[in-house]
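Aggregate trends can hide what the representation actually does to any particular protein. In the encoding step, the backbone of a single protein was reduced to a row of integers, each denoting a local shape. The record that follows shows the chain in one-letter code together with its fold in token form.

***
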Amino acid sequence: MTMARETSGLRKADDADLHPSTPGTQDVDPGWLRSGANTGDSVGMPGKDKPVTLEVTLPKSLRKAVRQEAKSRGISVDEIVAEALRNRQRH
């Protein structure tokens, strides 16, 4: 009678050194580690947030200032707003 060798159902992928399954030590927190994040946030590109649409009402003068800032820096209004919200979140 031959005894079957027990093996684990899990094995390390051949390219595990290129695509690790666990997060490495990074200076930047991956988005899926944020409190309030859900598994849908981690699908795709870990560490990058999924873009969503946000509609806000603000004073015309503020809109004008944001547009001028975006133009002077050569980036989009969306990037200016996202940067401002990220900075506010850190403080």
